[in-house]
Design goal:
The chain is an alpha/beta fold. It has 2 domains: 170 residues, Rossmann fold; 202 residues, Dehydroquinate synthase-like, alpha domain. The protein contains 18 helices and 8 strands. The strands form 2 sheets. Strands 1-8-5-4-2-3 form a 6-stranded parallel sheet, sandwiched between helices. Helix 4 packs across helix 5 and helix 7 runs parallel beside helix 10.
Length: 398
């Protein structure tokens, strides 16, 4: 084992049923007045009110921004920033899925560093001032944003998902309470669950993977594959929800430290242009991308196979790699993941957008982490293949 590796995590991670009740005690360490960033669904479910009550019991003041929706945009960030600035909030609490947490991270940076998200995208403005501290409380088991140094915000003018990665974006506190995920409907459980699985698989095959991220990724894959179908079919099964929650968190920590690959690089443009949920667009791409990169990933895919394929010892590495891809196809089929055609993406518009999507994917940098680095033409061909991809068609063992 050669080289120097880095592992970045939030300052504090609380995990377990009922851990959300600790938000007041954690917030007391960070400031006096919180901005709670959430969405209408979390508010309706009572999670925001519960958080407000815990803060009140700890003697803390708070205000709310509750307009985040399924994909965070620079408009959400600007609106939340205005409240944060006007109310002189000194820390932020995000309650919800990755959209809420990513919005909170963006606000935390811009409040102290100035400018807009666009200024920081690519090789732009650098973060020089410490962001406001963030407490991240996920209510889905998917993005892992509670433990990552990444935020992704869509520019509504350019239709580009802007990814910003910096160690200062790590939340000060992550509170992972599986009880909060029990309210997720089946469609959200599927989308976010496959998103977490993508994080783990991509982190493991990434060119930037290292021994610690390998351990995190493989453990995450075991947790997710062992529980996702149960969580999907029986959302009230807290044991399955707990396994998914810890799997998502471990997957987030893995990819935050080793990076994602081609799946995420290609996924972001689909979400930005056609407004597909992030987890769904990842799932639409995952099997086909793994088929594309398999020849350069056989040993890694085989290691995944030894964790999730029964009687793995009976297969060669190449056969195990094929078994893993087939298992992921079957999972997408079982979770009713649609291809792009079935989702309703207009084929003519999709075809017209191929060059832009491929260029945006390459610009994100993620494809360069893939074991087999694709050309622009190969990415366009993969998009076309995925448009009407058949999850039920299995690869044949050699």
């Amino acid at each position: 084992m050669n080289g120097i590796y880095e592992l970045l995590m939030p300052g504090t991670v609380l995990y377990g049923s009922g851990s959300a009740k600790e938000v007041g005690k954690q917030a007391m360490k960070l400031g006096k007045k919180a901005l709670i960033i959430s969405d209408p669904i979390m508010n309706k479910l009572g999670y925001v009110e519960e958080c407000q009550q815990h803060l009140k019991e700890s003697g803390l003041a708070c205000v709310t921004y509750l307009n985040v929706d399924s994909e965070p945009t620079n408009i959400h960030v600007s609106e939340a920033m205005a409240i944060c600035s006007e109310e002189l909030c000194d820390h932020i609490i995000a309650i919800g899925g990755g959209s809420c947490i990513d919005t909170a991270k963006a606000v935390s940076v811009l409040i102290t560093n100035g400018g807009t998200m666009t200024d920081y995208f690519g090789t732009g403005k650098k973060i020089t001032e410490k962001p406001l501290p963030v407490i991240a409380i996920p209510t889905t088991s998917g993005t892992g944003s509670e433990v990552t140094k990444v935020t992704v915000i869509t520019d509504v003018v350019t239709n580009i998902k802007m990814m910003l990665a910096d160690a200062s974006l790590l939340p000060a506190v992550a509170i992972v309470d599986p009880n909060l995920t029990a309210s997720c409907p089946k469609s959200v459980t599927a989308a976010t669950g496959v998103d977490a699985l993508c994080h783990a698989v991509e982190a493991y095959i990434s060119r930037k993977a290292h021994p610690v991220t390998d351990a995190l990724a493989l453990t995450a894959i075991e947790h997710i594959m062992g529980s996702i179908r149960t969580a999907y079919e029986d959302g009230g099964n807290i044991d399955a929800r707990a396994q998914m929650a810890i799997g998502s968190m471990l997957a987030g920590a893995a990819f935050s430290n080793s990076s994602v690959t081609l799946v995420h690089g290609m996924s972001r443009p689909i979400g930005a242009l056609f407004h597909t949920p992030h987890g769904i667009s990842n799932a639409m791409l995952l099997p086909a991308v793994l088929e594309f990169t398999m020849e350069a990933s056989i040993e890694r895919l085989a290691q995944i196979g030894r964790k999730i394929i029964a009687n793995a010892g009976n297969y060669s590495d190449e056969e195990l790699a094929i078994c893993v891809i087939n298992e992921l196809k079957q999972l997408c089929f079982d979770l009713n993941i649609p291809n792009m055609k079935k989702y309703g993406i207009d084929e003519e518009l999709f075809t017209q957008s191929l060059s832009k999507m491929a260029a945006d994917a390459i610009e994100s940098g993620s494809p360069a982490n893939t074991p087999k680095i694709p050309t622009m033409e190969e990415i366009k061909a993969l998009y076309e293949r995925c448009y009407d991809y058949d999850f039920s068609a299995k690869m044949q063992l050699v």
